[in-house]
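Minutes, project check-in
Item: structure for the 389-residue chain
Input as provided by the requester:
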Amino acid sequence: MRLLLPAALLAMALPMAAHGQAGKIEIRFCPAARVRAYPLESRRRIESVVLQNAAIINHGAAPLEVTAVAIDLMRDGEAVETRRLAGRELARAGGNSAGLQASGEVTQIPVQFCGGKLVAGGVIFAGTRLTHGQGLLLFQQLMAFQGPRDALRVTVHGRSEGHDVAASGALPIDTAMSRTVFRFPLEGVWWVGVGATPHTGHRWFVPEEFALDIGKLGGEGLDHRGDGRAFGDYYGYGAPVLAAADGAVVSAVDGMAEDASAMRQPGETTDTYSKRMMATQATLLAKGVLALAGNHVVIDHGDGEYSLYAHLKPGSVLVKPGQAAKSGQPIGRLGSSGNSTAPHLHFQVCDSPRVLLDCAGIPISFKDLDIPWADWVRPVQSGDVVVAR
């Protein structure tokens, strides 16, 4: 069910102190339209939401000392769960936001910050003491809940010119899956190594919050034979990738090379491998964020939903922009181009064709997909083996 926030709640704000600072605290969200939920445990109706970004900005002439921030999960206008950030926790959040901006990540990975909208107007992230034009960024706050919730509210408490001040803003919580019902983009038995589960990386990145990284396992439980040094060692490499629903091709990129050195080498420790991959990603980012997707196809399914098929094998892309695509039609082959550490298909659905520039992920609704180890009807989670029919 799609839960929408009443207009009155969207517009609400706590009473402000009657002085010059009143009404000059802005709360910006990214994504700005809604926060999407994803089931943690469907049978018990346990869901999760990630507040990716909430920027608290001081537009007043006087300095603002932010003393506490409350994040509320709401139902029918009442707070059901509350997380309160104050003291060290709040100071840590402020330090992180300043560090993110200083490191260049806000501009290097614009999609994570909604194409620069969070810093529009020259906002500078700082600590908890904000002068005019400075902001405090709350980053990646995960909350879980059981039962219906219809809004997430952020309330800021602070002091300015000797007065207590407060302001709040809210987002609707959307528990719906995609309007488009997709077929799985591969045929047969596959392993979803990374999904929307919080312990894997996708959930923390705005466009791919509900994306899947899909590979194939062999009889020994690994995704490759031998030592995995060559692309051909991987059981899924070269498998046909299929359009997951009818639509129109928005973009199709081919000809980007694969890099075997990006794969984890035999005997390489997790720490060494992680550091090497961070350096590789930085090199790709220098070429532009679309280099991360490698060879890829984007399809428009209408209703503001776009599917992305990334890391395709060079020379395998079979469609062109403007072409109609039919559900089940081959559009390329599984590969390892772009920001890929082993051959796999990255599949996501989001709300814009600007898939790595300015879009927000959408939970994916599948049809004709069996999860053999599931004991209840539920969406795909990280680590699932699935059977596409």
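Outcome recorded: Residues 7-174 form one domain.
No further action items on this chain.
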